[in-house]
Amino acid sequence: MKYVNFEDTGDTISDEFFMKEALKEAHKALAGDEVPIGAVIVHGGRIIGRGHNLTERLNDVTAHAEMQAFTAAANYIGGKYLVGCTLYVTVEPCVMCAGAAYWTQISRIVFGAKDPKRGFSLFGSGLLHPKTTVINGILGEECAALVTSFFRNKRTE
Amino acid sequence: MKYVNFEDTGDTISDEFFMKEALKEAHKALAGDEVPIGAVIVHGGRIIGRGHNLTERLNDVTAHAEMQAFTAAANYIGGKYLVGCTLYVTVEPCVMCAGAAYWTQISRIVFGAKDPKRGFSLFGSGLLHPKTTVINGILGEECAALVTSFFRNKRTE
């Protein structure tokens, strides 16, 4: 378990705490029969953006959990840069979402499960902003199991 | 000048024609003091989606011309895959937009000017879908000049 110190609040909150919030978002996606991936964006110990995958409902490939969380957080802040923020997402961001993360200059990305098919890390670290640090494996098994079980059920429907 | 044959219409329309439409979108961005990049998506000789950069107005890094054009085209079609479509964009797509293009499975990408800083091709061809073909340099000088002039004016403001 990794702990995060927030300078402006003095709080010490674990990455697991916020990953559980991202998992709540993933369950909202699951309830809508979407690939169950969820995300939250945190600044100073507070969640300032949430999102879950809505690609089916919106008929829109850009409606990934992270993209919606970026948009929500930027809207909350009133500015498009997320320096000092952390993205928590249940599955490794894809190329599109890593590319969006680059533009936000977000400080940290914490993800649960690796995506061996389309995870950004397949393409090296250059997709992200050089100032972005990455942690993975937080509640990784739970995050992965949610997606694996979703696709297993799809195949037997 | 490259010509495109559209099986379902029999029309032969040049890539320049649609790049001029993308340039019209770029000029809309310029009028809003946005980095002047524009895009259209074409299917069967018809424009089915348009977009121009709105990152400043929307305070949202995801509001690139291509992303909005993808969303608009998917909305028009009523489905999220853009097989058989061509994206015309005045500047080479970034990593985010290339990642989105991958998910759409779009058949062709035609862009004007290269982006030597964040163009997707800096990261090899793996970011795009293997079935996507790419053409560049269509009205490239005009597309590049629009962006260069925008940033030159910004520096002297």
Automatic annotation (TrEMBL), chains A, B:
Record's catalysed reaction(s): adenosine(34) in tRNA + H2O + H(+) = inosine(34) in tRNA + NH4(+)
Keywords: Hydrolase, Metal-binding, tRNA processing, Zinc
Molecular-function annotations in GO: tRNA-specific adenosine-34 deaminase activity; zinc ion binding
Database matches in InterPro entries: CMP_dCMP_dom, Cytidine_deaminase-like, tRNA_aden_deaminase
Catalytic residues, chain numbering: E66
Residues noted as binding Zn(2+) in the record, renumbered to the chain: H64, C94, C97
Hydrolase is among the record's keywords: yes
A biological-process GO annotation: tRNA wobble adenosine to inosine editing
Pfam family, one: dCMP_cyt_deam_1
Annotated TM spans: none
Annotated CMP/dCMP-type deaminase domain residues: 13-123
EC top class named in words: hydrolase
Cofactor annotation: Zn(2+)
Cofactor note: Binds 1 zinc ion per subunit.
Keyword Zinc applies: yes
EC number: 3.5.4.33
Entry function: Catalyzes the deamination of adenosine to inosine at the wobble position 34 of tRNA(Arg2).
Subunit structure: Homodimer.
Family to which the UniProt record says this protein belongs: Belongs to the cytidine and deoxycytidylate deaminase family.
Name the UniProt record assigns to this protein: tRNA-specific adenosine deaminase
